[in-house]
Amino acid sequence: MQNDIIKISPSIHEFLLTHGYTENFTVTPIAGAGSGRRYFRIASDERKSVLQVSAEVNEDFKHFVEYSKTFREYGLPVPRVYCVDENACQVLQEDLGKRSLLDEAFPNGTKVLSGSARILYPEVIDALIQWQNASHQLFSHHTEIWLRRFDFAALKWESDYFTENYLKLHKGITEIPESVRNFYSLVAVSVEAQTKVLMHRDFQSQNIMIRPNSEVAFVDFQGARRGSMFYDIASLLWDPYVSLPLPMIKDFFEYWRSQYRGTRIYTKDDAWEGFVHASLQRLMQALGAYCFLSKVKKIEKFEQYIEPGKAQLRVLFGEFKQIAKATDPEVFKFMDWALQ
């Protein structure tokens, strides 16, 4: 057994040996994200699973385990959890394969968006719609998720996160005009008022797996809660890891809008406006995260996404300008300067 890179807990080791794994199973590290969790692929002949190792048994750890079971009960595309050892902070779960949506969008490490994106994204959107359609029934039977609301306080935290980590830390801007701060609050108010559904909360290309049978599955859903129906589709389509071109973003948004029955309470224009507001909220949060993870946490790989995040946010503000009704011109002037 090659497990010198991680000490597998006795209970998970016993589970493996009693479920068809041999003593010489292999353990291979899987690249993680910015959460601090580590992942390892465990393999023995044709059997494979993934071991998640956390620093502590915190709220995220417990939510992942609980939500995996709950979401699978509703037929949602998440991995099975096989074995949990809280003392070792380890979770053994289903192996969804090695290919994320990001891997499929840029096959073989290329920088050119794959032609298969036109096929893959609608399939991912279909899976998201399945997720959103389960909201009412799931909330009715699991009030703990319904009560976990992505409210104004959480949204305002995101814009403050952008202010502290992008504007101040990365750009060195010390004075933020009051009109700009008010704008961030108004965006949060707008997104908080949008129709609520089950929200993944980090619905980006690295958290969407394309299984060997081409089925779509979601990971890192421990942040799921009740929030804006536009937030996850915004996370997917404005993801700086991929940087979809604007025409493709509009096409995929229209596909989601036309297929998801929850949008029927909105006119086409109102749906687009709600999407733009949620997109501003999400993209500012993502840009703040890249700066925090690279500059504070010293995880260098995230620095490469700051410029793509800025570029996407510039495009998004261009779309917002076309629908803005009473936004102070100082806001656009400041953001044009801050995103240079």
UniProtKB/TrEMBL annotation:
Protein name, entry field: Aminoglycoside phosphotransferase
Domain of life: Bacteria
Species: Fibrobacter succinogenes (strain ATCC 19169 / S85)
Residue ranges constituting the Aminoglycoside phosphotransferase domain according to the UniProt record: 26-261
InterPro entries in the record: Aminoglycoside_PTrfase, Kinase-like_dom_sf
Source species taxonomy: Bacteria, Pseudomonadati, Fibrobacterota, Fibrobacteria, Fibrobacterales
SUPFAM superfamilies, per the entry: Protein kinase-like (PK-like)
